[in-house]
């Protein structure tokens, strides 16, 4: 039997004006977990779409079980036993877990193809129990957490007798505990005979789970290594083509006058007695464990939700922020955690998304000046170093890191004083992180205040001038950057009252 269950040799894929893959090679061994890594825009998504039949390559060959294959559709790849579990759930929230698991391959009986609900519920529950998942097969998909939805996707893969399972950034939205559980489920899949391609930006995923790792960079194959034979430093160089000596840019900025101050801010059921300020040129981090109320504080300051108590001041003056429009008029901007659902219209062009930040800026009397919009969008896209063939590309065509840059560019079209960044580097690679940190530093140098909400300890310690820690909806500690360390922050986040 051939050592490799899947082989791709010299794969090239070209889109108009863009070479998305160039001479890429990949081999997946039977029963291995193989990490696929690279910066956003390196070609990973296109590569996966070639494997699953979404795209057909212009050049190169693919072998399954040592035999040449050509997949002209996703159905072809699924029938061959290849399934992809995507980062953003493709589930139907209004359907049951069972319906989601068996969608497209329902169990039927007779000429009328009557659905065998009892059998499907039983088989779905059996699959979930095999994974050790505490999920009711009859429950509505929309009632499940992100982690539970990932498990349902895995169960769906098992139901279709998948031999090769591709997992696209499965831990991006999970806590450390949920990620560890996912590792265990993934190992169970391998023990059951599946071969797994695991796509991730997180080194901890790779080292914890994978046997081997393949790196793509700039649409090209860089190399394949045994995971225990490559260091962090060498991985970074392989991914970005350079050594990132200074991930967190050192800034010498004179902190200016107060921009934002909140006093005894509260929202019933979410947080209480929140007081802090942010000054010009200052980066203040709001951190703590997931679910402590950090994002809810940001939403309240930005007018998405209303406080039950407390006061918000901008430039020393009390402001009533009853809507995001009020917040923007006061000079406050928000980069939300979920950029795809809350910050971008994915089917729109990059230029239109950037223009959404302040449409009034592009009006000439009763007319909308598209030329002015395009010029501004081009300038800001270049400033943010957005990787795209044109500002007229759809936002959906961009990698996660480049989508985040568009969100920042969109914010800069408004006359802002302070920008709230909620998990700005979530789901992006080390190269994109470095670029976003550089942008944050530049914004601070220009006099913007930044409220950074982050769960990533290195990010908080590396970027913030002050660090505010929350637990259970309350502030438990505040540190200057020079006095903070991981132990102090964790203690305040886990034990502080």
Describe the fold and architecture.
The protein has 497 residues and is of the alpha/beta class. The strands form 6 sheets. It has a 6-stranded mixed sheet with strand order 6-9-10-3-11-12, sandwiched between helices. The mean pLDDT is 87. It folds into 2 domains: 4-240, 3-Layer(aba) Sandwich (Rossmann fold); 258-494, P-loop containing nucleotide triphosphate hydrolases (Rossmann fold), CATH 3.40.50. Helix 4 crosses helix 5.
Q: Helices and strands in order, then pairings?
A:
Elements: E1 4-15, E2 18-29, E3 33-37, H1 44-51, E4 59-64, E5 67-69, H2 74-79, E6 82-85, H3 97-102, E7 108-109, E8 114-115, H4 117-131, H5 146-159, E9 164-168, H6 176-191, E10 195-199, H7 203-209, E11 212-217, E12 220-226, H8 232-240, E13 258-267, E14 271-279, E15 283-287, H9 294-301, E16 309-314, E17 317-319, H10 324-329, E18 332-335, H11 339-342, H12 350-355, E19 363-364, E20 367-368, H13 370-383, H14 400-412, E21 418-422, H15 430-445, E22 449-453, H16 457-463, E23 466-471, E24 474-480, H17 486-494
Parallel strand pairs: 3-10, 3-11, 6-9, 9-10, 15-22, 15-23, 18-21, 21-22
Antiparallel strand pairs: 1-2, 1-4, 4-5, 7-8, 11-12, 13-14, 13-16, 16-17, 19-20, 23-24
